[in-house]
Amino acid sequence: MSSGGPIGIMGGSFDPIHHGHLLAASEVADRLDLASIVFVPAGQPWQKSRQELAAAEDRYAMTIVATAGDSRFSVSRMEIDRLGPSYTVDTLKELHQTFEPSALYFITGADALAGIQTWHQYEEIVKLAHLVGVSRPGHPLPNDEFVKRPVTLIDIPGMAVSATDIRQRIMTKRSIRYLVPAAVESYIRKHQLYRVAG
Ligand code: ATP
Ligand code: MG
Question: Is the peptide bond between 140 and the residue preceding it cis, with omega within 30 degrees of 0?
Fold first, then answer.
């Protein structure tokens, strides 16, 4: 999956993956000149209080179909296949073994970045990867003083889309067209995802 050069890591629950995720990954790849971005759907996201996520296999499949058309993008099953809660620190350690990249760039949106200091083994995370924070509407980018570590902050075109909003739209029978790739919309319809409150 990687030629050994630097790679970007895009973690998330991807419940479902949407154009905000894809734009963020693409912009970071362009700006940092990364040939490869690996999307890592979480198995059991430890931060989420909501119990009912879509099945891991559905979230994985949607991530695959969403990223299929971009040769820079790939999807890893490592968190889905790992037992127990998905911790970023474990993923970064595993990536260091598997990919032997010269550098890992861990990508987060501004909302996730704001809370990153509370993440499990944060001090270890920042030793294993460079942090990259991208802008997200409604969530001001914290400065690197706040994160207390070097962090690359990247302003991207604002897409006020969230998976929470997409799930609510489906439950209330509103359109999700153009918020997610057409293939993801078809997948959700075919598998009847998000029709009942999680
Ligand atoms: P939910 O509403 O269920 O939390 P989400 O839309 O926030 O879903 P996640 O899977 O939680 O999606 O996010 C994965 C990563 O993508 C996080 O780092 C998050 O900050 C980032 N991200 C998600 N949506 C956007 C967006 N519209 N713009 C920029 N970054 C985003
Ligand atoms: Mg989120």
Answer: no
Q: What does the block give as tokens for 120?
A: 């499990």
**pTM attached to this predicted model:** 0.94
3-state SS assignment for residue 133: strand
CA angle 125, 79, 111 (to 5 degrees): 55
| Residue 14 alpha carbon to ligand 2 centre in Å | 8
If you measure from the C-alpha of residue 36 to the centroid of ligand 2, how many angstroms do you get, rounded to a whole number?
A: 23
Six-digit token string for 105: 């760039």
**Which tens digits make up the pLDDT trace of 79-96?**
999 988 889 999 999 998
Q: Which two tokens stand for residue 197?
A: 């409150």
The reply to whether ligand 1 has any atom less than 6 angstroms from the CB of 159 is yes
| Contacting residues for 33 by C-beta, under 8 A, at least 6 apart | none
